[in-house]
Amino acid sequence: MLTNTPIQILLVEDDEVDRSIVRRALSNSGLAFEMQEVFDGADAVEAVASRHFDCIILDYNLPDQDGSDVFESITRNQDTTAAVIFLTGEDSEELALSVMESGAVDFLNKNDLTPAILQRAIRFARARQSFLSELTRIGRRDSLTGLPNRSVLEDTLTNALAQCRRSKTVVAALLLDLDHFKDVNDTMGHPAGDELLQAIAKQLKFSTRESDTVIRLGGDEFIILAPNMEDEQGAQQLAEKILDAMSQPILIGEDQVHISTSIGIAIAPNDGTSSAKILKSADLALYKAKGGGRARCCFYDESMDIKAHYRGQMERDLRQALQRQEFELYYQPKVNAKTGAMIGVEALLRWNHPERGLVAPDEFVPLAEATRLIIPIGEWVLRTASAQVMAWEKQGLHVTNCSVNLSAVQLSDSPLLEVFDSVLSETGINPSCLEFEITEGALMKGIDTIAACLQAMRDKGSSITVDDFGTGYSSLVHLKQLPLDKLKIDRSFISNMLTSMNDAEITNMIVSLGRSIGLEVIAEGAETEAEVDMLQNFGCDQIQGYFYSRPLPADQLFAWHQRHNLVPRDVHSRPVEDGHGNLAPQGQVSEAQHLHLYPAP
After folding, report:
1. What is the DSSP code (8-state) at residue 383?
2. Could you point out which of 77, 297, 375, 473 has its C-alpha 20 to 30 Å from the C-alpha of 428?
3. Residues 182, 186, 191, 196, Cα dihedral to 10°
């Protein structure tokens, strides 16, 4: 917006006669102005660095350099929004086009200079520059919340770091990520999600100091840059203030929405002296905060870099594992709790790392899910397990039930049904031979989508099992909404049944619950005869565990089954492999002995 404030003009002209022409034209233009005069390019650059100008009138031919070089130095090295008008004694359309394309707002011939022409040029230059400045301002603001956006982050943080070096104070960067924000969009709709983000933006502004900068990075991510803090205690207090404010419900329409945030905090200069390092440190701290239970803040420490390097290396290795054929399936028998006869197997994924050896799923599956690598890996598991069932069939081993684990990512965010149909067609397996296991936690992530996917597979004849039951948050309502056939009791209850009355009662209750709603119940992790006795007394339908067999490679499973069939169908007479193809006494080999974990840092 133009005002009556005097226009600040810098005249860069070495010729006194030409300077007089410009002075006279400006004096007769009717404009209110204040003007500083310099005679060469070097002085022009220095002048722009020392004060603000609205307009620069720049001679194209200067004694030390041409005007294009001066213009480039000013725009590249100086923080200026001044409009630049070139003056020249030449009448060259090619030169005029060149300087206008470089960013100048006008190109005037000294021989044609009049007060009216100069006045018009300056007014146009100021209006154009004001318009461009407004575009820049809009471009640096988030349109939804009105907060500064990501484009200002680098400059703001760099300036704050320079300021902290001068004042011997610290700068805190607080990186925020809303917990389970996607659930709000999914359940209430995106307009409600937008309204929630606007409310949170106001809350963050209210919780911070005038000197702090709240930036929306995009989505549900924000960052707060807090300069001039004496120590990290100030950052701790600010984070706690934000966490407390976020614990209050937010009214969206007629609904009260409860949402929390996780905060990662990095302190400069202790955690880095460059903007890139501070942002990386804050991001690592946020990752730890979210992994530690959310709704909490976490400060960066150096050990996070080591863990991040380890995780990064593991991810790179995992991305190559499929093409290098490093994955293998092991199969653990499932037996009838009453007869001890094998009635199926569970396919269990193992990673044969070329340097670290056998890696247990608990070490790499969460990373595979986070990176979505679980989608191609899961497809490989389903295809390989199905092909193995058909191979056993040719060997005379009729495996009528092979269970495969599915993650929430596969169920809600991948072409699982297309893959399922493709596997059935390619391997020729009867879909009734396949059982799909999903965890309780997966049930909470879009139950309608998951239910539709599971129902489609069940309609073809496959069965569905809830794995690790008793450790999640599913309710009877959710169980009724899903097309389920079986419940599998989490191994933690089985291993503690003999020493914990609570775990024994919970196990018994789960068995009773399953039976009451028409579901079979499977217990996994049984290692001793006493545990098997108790499960049988509870009325459990199926049992898995080291009491019968550890997970085995496909060829060893075939051999185990052959020997197993020679033993009378006494539930307490199941042969156990010792890991070398030999039979071991029941309970002698524990599951922990056979899991070679990915070495943590």
Report:
1. H
2. 375
3. -40
